[in-house]
Amino acid sequence: MAGIVDRKSREEIKMMRRAGQIVAEVHALVRENLRSGISTFELDELAEAHIRKSGALPTFKGYHGFPATLCTSINAEVVHGIPSKEAILNEGDIVSIDVGATYRGLIADAAFTAGVGEITEDLKNLLIATEESLFAAIEQMREGRYLEDVSGAVEDVNKKYKYGLVRNYGGHAVGRKLHEEPFVHNFRTGNQGPMLKVGSCLAIEPMFNLGGDDVYTAKDEWTVLTTDHLPSAHFEHTVVVTESDPEVLTRLKSD
User: Fold this and answer.
1) Are 112 and 127 in contact (CB under 8 A)?
2) Domains of the chain, residue spans
């Protein structure tokens, strides 16, 4: 793979920045309402209402037929869980919330995993490590670095903690479409890949498992689960390369 990661114009980044703030607001809204007894369907309704009220569209809804605004993945579900009235969150669960917003044709995408009430130390540590790997990768989002630097940063943190590493799924360039090339592996491939330049935008999304690496897709053809049915964590931000530090577009301005 050669060349550079596609660059967005200043005007496009401005629109992505607004989309990113809406995504961050949805994350905050979900965190506020995350509790034992709530269904993922209820969380999805809150998210969709906020996105539309903000003048944006829920990017995931209808994407290749996906039926909801959020991906809500509980415990051993890794990604792409479908919100449901029957999916009730319980004390001690972890749930991954992934959401995209499209504002004036430009897209931002982000995810986080959180505990419902009190969770075990093992789960707390899994979440900490996965988020740490995301921010290690974000630090590599600088002019002149390569895609492999981003991927390698995730792998380095994973090796330190010795968690399972999801290899079948990863991040992607984003902006005009939800999934743009290149794909962003969460491990080194041995190919430096394209160079990062000012304006390059990536959605970086590590996924660590409490058990092994292997995953499979459920009969609904969306939900991805760990093969050993041990819990998984997923964190993601949309990030743009600037002339100085990386800019996280999907973090609240007050953060």
Assistant:
1) no
2) 10-248
Q: Angle at CA 92, nearest 5°, toward 68 and 108?
A: 35
Fold adopted by 10-248: Creatine Amidinohydrolase (3.90.230)
pTM above 0.70, yes or no: yes
Output DSSP code: residue 231: -
% residues pLDDT > 70 (the chain): 98
- Using the CB atoms, write b or e for 77-115: b if 16+ within 10 Å: bbbbbbbeeebebeeebbbbbbbbbbbeebbbbbbbbbb
Which run of H or E residues covers position 204? strand 201-204
Chain-centroid distance, C-alpha 36? 23
Residues 70, 27: contact at Cβ < 8 Å?
Answer: no
Percent of the chain with pLDDT over 90: 97
pLDDT in tens, 28-55: 999 999 999 999 999 999 999 999 999 9
Determine the 3-state secondary structure of 31 from DSSP: helix
- DSSP assigned state of 9: P
Residue 255's pLDDT is what? 53
